[in-house]
Amino acid sequence: MDWIEREKKHILQTYTRQKVVIERGEGCYVYDVNGKRYLDLVAGIATVSIGHCNRHLVERLKEQLEKLIHISNLYYTTPQVELAEKLSEIAGMDRFFFCNSGAEAVEAALKFARRATGRKKFVSFTGDFHGRTMGALSVTHKEKFRKPFEPLVSPVEFAEFNNPESLEKVVDEETAAVIVELVQGEAGVYPADREFVKAIEELREKYGFLLIVDEVQTGFGRTGRWFAKDHYGIEPDMITMAKAMGSGVPIGCCALKEEVAEKIQVGDHGSTFGGNPLACTAALATIEVIEREGLVENSARMGEYFVKRLKESFENVIGVGLMIGFDVGDAAEFVRKCLENGLLVNNTSERRIRLVPPLVITEREVDKAVEIMLN
Question: Does the keyword Isomerase apply (predicted)?
Answer without folding.
Answer: no
